[in-house]
Amino acid sequence: MNDNMIFVGTPVYNRIDVCTARSRELMAADPRFYVAPFFCGAPVHVPRNELVELFLKSDSQYLLWLDADNSISIDGVMALVNTQADIVMAAYAQWDRKEGRFWCAGQMDKERREYGFISRLPPEATAFDIVGMGCTIVKRKVYETLDGLYYWADGERTEDIYFCEKAKQAGFTIALNPAVRSPHWKIRNMNEGLS
User: Fold this and answer.
1) How many CB atoms lie within 10 A of CB 8?
2) b/e map of 27-65 (b: 16 or more CB within 10 Å)?
3) pLDDT (0 to 100) of residue 23
4) Are 177 and 83 in contact (CB under 8 A)?
5) What share of the chain is helix, strand, coil (3-state, %, to 5)?
6) What is this structure's pTM?
7) Comparing C-alpha atoms, which of 72, 89, 74, 61 is closest to residue 27?
8) How are beta strands 11-12 and 39-40 bridged, if at all?
9) How far is CA 82 from the centre of its chain?
10) Which domain holds residue 55?
11) Domain contains 189
12) Cα–Cα distance between 118 and 100 in angstroms, integer?
């Protein structure tokens, strides 16, 4: 299908941010990237799984998830590729009414038996139990090893958590690279300058 190193997948479940469109446009002009057509659907695990199947038919070595509300520079993508982990997230924040603003990476709190997300970025690339898929690169070998359903949201877990748990159980490493930032339109106007 293609011999580009990085396959860019953008699941669309609402609208496409202008910054996401610009990131995809710049990547499409770079021969190292193959920018897949938009895959639409809700819930979001449906287009994610369809994009994985398309990725596995390609010769690309990495799948970059770039959600329709995130953006990243080409230099940022290459920094993710060079991070020593199988799954690497660019630093992007999220917001909810209960937690407020937080970074989309977390560890399992074994006492409470739930994931705790971080409010401050670590100083360097750091291993985590889970990361969001909004702006994350995944090595090909992860999908080739995992079988069947890659992403699933079951009401208790999001598709990101389902995937990370499955990958971690298979022995893959998951990390956040805080040096790579991915603006997230949902909180761009809420002073994304979290430290």
Assistant:
1) 24
2) beeeeebbbbebbbeeebbbbbbbbbebbeebebebbbb
3) 96
4) yes
5) 25, 30, 45
6) 0.91
7) 74
8) parallel
9) 16
10) 6-181
11) no
12) 11
Return the CATH number at 136.
3.90.550.40
Q: What is the pLDDT of residue 121?
A: 94
132: its two tokens? 């969001």
The yes-or-no verdict on residue 169 having pLDDT over 80 is yes
Alpha carbons 44 and 9: distance in angstroms, whole number: 12
Is the pLDDT reported for residue 76 higher than 50?
A: yes
* One-letter amino acid for residue 118 of the chain: I
- Strand bridging mode 87-91 / 135-139: antiparallel
Mean pLDDT of 167-177: 98
Question: What count of other Cβ atoms lies within 10 Å of the Cβ of residue 180?
Answer: 23
- 29 vs 34: CA distance, rounded Å: 9
Q: Do the domain assignments include residue 40?
A: yes
- Going by their DSSP bridges, the two strands 126-127 and 174-181 should be labelled as antiparallel
Q: Which residue has the higher pLDDT, 21 or 43?
A: 21
Does some domain include residue 114? yes
pLDDT computed for residue 84 by the predictor: 96
Please give the tally of structural domains in the chain.
Answer: 1
Do the domain assignments include residue 195?
A: no
Is the per-residue pLDDT at 17 higher than 90?
Answer: no
Give alpha helix (H) positions in the chain: 18-28, 45-56, 74-81, 140-145, 159-169
pLDDT of residue 194: 41
91-125: pLDDT as tens digits: 998 877 776 778 899 999 888 888 988 989 999 99
Residue with tokens 């080409």: 74
